[in-house]
Amino acid sequence: MANKKIKQIAIYGKGGIGKSTTTSNISAALVKQGFKVMQFGCDPKSDSTNTLRGGKYIPTVLDTLREKTTVKASEVIHEGFGGVYCVEAGGPAPGVGCAGRGIITAVQLFKQQRVFEELDLDFVIYDVLGDVVCGGFAVPIREGIAEHVFTVSSADFMAVYAANNLFRGIHKYSNAGGALLGGVIANSINAPYAKEIIDDFVKQTKTQVVEYVPRSVTVTQSELQGKTTIEAAPNSEQAKIYTRLALKIAEHTESKVPEPLDVHELREWASKWADHLLALETGEVTSKASCI
């Protein structure tokens, strides 16, 4: 299907925020809906697709290129749960080179060999480390490889800080044909104040929350089995939330340029929320829709 439109999506988030867990469950949910999906792990740790592969390691693009000069894309593509095509870009040898080089190299290899078209994919989902948006990590945004960008964030300040940095990167490259923002996937949202913080952040930056994903022991149990929640607990409430999120992303068509806060504004915003949470704890207030 030469003229088929492949939807390419990048999901960013700081390390440890649950980005790969979220991405893998989105991929698993999409294949269960009958879509052909590739998950493209862009973290040098090369662990994006673990739960799609039963916890099994797969050779990365960079590792394979270090062993041989010529590599066929098929050598670094491995099938996971439900037929999800799993790829790990990999990173350089420890202490040497740019951590984002694997993304650049893998994307070039797949473009040259027309892999996405040959596999007749519906979705390519890039799982990208979002602590820094520079070099190779910015490739899905900067070069417009991804059509839509989503970020996983909790209500913790460093997660919000990383999301705001991502918004700055999107804003910077938007005039040069870069990818735009689809919205925020609010992760580990259990306490009411956490939802209020994320809601206020997206209001300040003129974006939106795509889905609220609570912290759940079901996710932990599933990952201890080396599986996604979609595979291990398909009838659970958490699986229903991931499926709802996946369908929202599948149907998403309009992304926008966010309006990131500058460093001073972000610090001021965070400080006001800190004061508000202290007031909540002491019983001085009960709710607050916006702290700015």
TrEMBL record:
Coiled coil: none annotated. Gene3D superfamilies: P-loop containing nucleotide triphosphate hydrolases. [4Fe-4S] cluster binds at C98, C134. ATP binds at G13, K14, G15, G16, I17, G18, K19, S20. The modification ADP-ribosylarginine is found at R101. PROSITE patterns: NIFH_FRXC_1 (PS00746), NIFH_FRXC_2 (PS00692), NIFH_FRXC_3 (PS51026). It comes from the Bacteria. The reversible ADP-ribosylation of Arg inactivates the nitrogenase reductase and regulates nitrogenase activity. The reversible ADP-ribosylation of Arg-101 inactivates the nitrogenase reductase and regulates nitrogenase activity. It catalyses: N2 + 8 reduced [2Fe-2S]-[ferredoxin] + 16 ATP + 16 H2O = H2 + 8 oxidized [2Fe-2S]-[ferredoxin] + 2 NH4(+) + 16 ADP + 16 phosphate + 6 H(+). GO terms for molecular function: 4 iron, 4 sulfur cluster binding; ATP binding; metal ion binding; nitrogenase activity. Keywords: 4Fe-4S, ADP-ribosylation, ATP-binding, Iron, Iron-sulfur, Metal-binding, Nitrogen fixation, Nucleotide-binding, Oxidoreductase. Its cofactor is [4Fe-4S] cluster. Its EC number is 1.18.6.1. Binds 1 [4Fe-4S] cluster per dimer. The key enzymatic reactions in nitrogen fixation are catalyzed by the nitrogenase complex, which has 2 components: the iron protein and the molybdenum-iron protein. NCBIfam families: nifH (TIGR01287). Belongs to the NifH/BchL/ChlL family. Homodimer. This is Nitrogenase iron protein. It comes from Acetivibrio mesophilus.
